[in-house]
Design goal:
The protein has 144 residues and is of the alpha+beta class. It has one domain: Urease, subunit C, domain 1. The chain is 40% helix and 12% strand. Helix 1 packs across helix 2 and helix 2 packs across helix 4. The longest helix is centred in the last third of the chain and has 20 residues.
């Protein structure tokens, strides 16, 4: 059975933070089973990477770093206080990483975010457009 992690979109909590989903997957299973070893960190990382790609039937392209696949990856800030100390990378990813720890993002081999700055879009323009569009959507729903 392939178990994958993802987010449901902002309508179910106004957040699409995969890092929270990763943490909760482990915490909930361990709590329900009353067993801290029930879901190893490596399995949780796989659920968020290669298993997600399998669920989308894209594991031939994404989900792991392999020759011939797209170079989609993130670089975490190893000096982040929330990631220190790091005794086991999988455990750190499964329990400690937040979006603030992401330093670089590479999609299909292209650097999209460098030093936490998006290189491909204007952040302020997007925020402004979202504010305008959300008001329009709310107004159209309110009138119906």
């Amino acid at each position: 059975m392939n178990i994958a992690l993802g987010t449901d979109g902002p309508a179910s909590g106004n957040d699409i933070d995969l890092w929270i989903a990763i943490r909760l997957a482990g915490y909930i299973q361990k709590t329900v089973a009353k067993n801290p070893a029930i879901l190893p960190a490596l399995d949780i990382v796989r659920m968020a990477t290669i298993n997600g790609a399998r669920a989308l039937q894209l594991d031939h392209l994404i989900g792991s770093l392999e020759v011939g696949k797209r170079a989609d990856l993130i670089v975490l800030d190893a000096d982040s206080p929330s990631l220190t100390p790091n005794f086991n990378p999988h455990t750190t990813i499964a329990t400690s990483v937040t979006r603030a720890d992401v330093r670089h993002v590479v999609i299909d081999g292209e650097v999209i975010v460098r030093d936490r700055k998006c290189l491909t879009i204007d952040h302020q323009s997007v925020i402004s457009a979202v504010k305008t569009l959300s008001k329009q959507v709310l107004a159209s729903v309110s009138n119906n």
